[in-house]
Amino acid sequence: MNEKQIIGIIDYDLGNIQSIINALDYLEIPNQIIKFPRDLYSFKKIILPGVGSFKTGMENLKKKSFSDEIIEIVKNNRASILGICLGMQLLYDYSEENGGCEGLGIVKGSVNKIKITENIKLPNIGWRKIIIPNDSSLLFGIDDAPIFYFVHSYGCNTENRKIVKGFLEYGNVFDVLIETRNIFGTQFHPEKSQKVGLQILQNFSSL
């Protein structure tokens, strides 16, 4: 793994940015908030955070002119991106939330509501053990079947199963960790997942 690189955190008015900053600062990983799309090109590592509605997230990204630039940078391998929670979902083609909305289309697949059963409540809040089907760079140095912190009601379904590095069985099965080339995503919150979550951020920084 390489030396730590400065990480840019996209500010589009819909993310838990401060908790991510706190986690990166604790790890002594240099970081900076990105408020303007032109500044994306100054970073080799970018985090797209997010908490809340998929549709609002896309509206904010478009209003601030981030969406096209994110797609351009990722598809041309100018930087690596880590989507966290809603940030991961926004990487996908489409979400059925709030009547449906197109996403960034960087990852082929859809975001669907978690099925509610007698024992399954929404939102999915709490610590969950994920299942790891494939080797993962983000999970380097982390034991098998790690537990992470989740807060969400919709789950990602990825077309290319080879890029799925972790999934969760909660109501139904959905993907919670993806990585391919320069694209990474975690449905869980690494910045709130204590030691294992900090290791995820450390690994992303050092890739």
Features of this protein?
207 residues, alpha/beta, Rossmann fold, 5 helices, 22% helix, globular
Report on the structure:
The protein is of the alpha/beta class and 207 residues long. The protein has one domain (7-206): Rossmann fold (3-Layer(aba) Sandwich). It contains 5 helices and 13 strands. The strands form 3 sheets. A 7-stranded mixed sheet has the order 2-1-3-4-13-12-11. It has a 4-stranded mixed sheet with strand order 6-5-7-10, covered by helices on one side. It has a two-stranded antiparallel sheet with strand order 8-9. The chain starts with 6 loop residues before the first strand and ends with a helix. The mean pLDDT is 95.
Topology, element by element:
Elements: E1 7-10, H1 17-26, E2 31-34, E3 45-48, H2 54-63, H3 67-75, E4 80-84, H4 86-89, E5 92-95, E6 101-102, E7 107-113, E8 124-129, E9 147-152, E10 154-158, E11 164-170, E12 172-180, E13 183-186, H5 194-206
Parallel strand pairs: 1-2, 1-3, 3-4, 4-13, 5-7
Antiparallel strand pairs: 5-6, 7-10, 8-9, 11-12, 12-13
